[in-house]
């Protein structure tokens, strides 16, 4: 979560187990989200990721983000 200022973070996923594939379920601010004019704007997406990947998190003013990592079973 953030305050009234938008923020961008580049997060390394090195905490995930090496050699495993994951689906990242990402719950994030919509493009028009804003703490004052649209405080409930959100979107979801899924990405396949590994421990070698990075995610760029873009938080809207007053926004936040949640990510759930699910191991892809072979």
Short summary of the structure?
The protein is 0% helix and 47% strand. By secondary structure, the chain is mainly beta.
Compile the SSE list and pairings.
Blueprint: E1 7-12, E2 22-29, E3 42-49, E4 54-59, E5 65-71
Antiparallel strand pairs: 1-4, 2-3, 2-5
Walk me through this protein's architecture.
- With 74 residues, the chain is mostly beta strands.
- The protein is built from no helices and 5 strands.
- The strands form 2 sheets. Strands 3-2-5 form a 3-stranded antiparallel β-sheet, with no helix packed on it. The protein has a two-stranded antiparallel ribbon with strand order 1-4.
- Helices cover 0% and strands 47% of the residues.
- The protein is elongated.
- It has strands spanning 7-12, 22-29, 42-49, 54-59, 65-71.
- The mean pLDDT is 94.
Question: How large a portion of the residues is in β-strands, by DSSP E?
Answer: over 45%
Order of helices and strands: EEEEE
**3D shape:** elongated
Instruction: Calculate the mean pLDDT score and round it.
Output: 94
């Amino acid at each position: 979560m953030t305050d009234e200022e938008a923020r961008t973070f580049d997060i390394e996923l090195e905490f995930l187990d090496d050699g495993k594939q994951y689906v990242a379920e990402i719950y994030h601010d919509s493009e028009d989200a804003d703490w004052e004019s649209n405080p409930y704007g959100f979107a979801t997406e899924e990405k396949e990721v590994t421990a070698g990947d990075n995610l760029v998190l873009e938080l809207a003013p007053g926004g936040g983000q949640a990510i759930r990592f699910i191991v892809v079973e072979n």
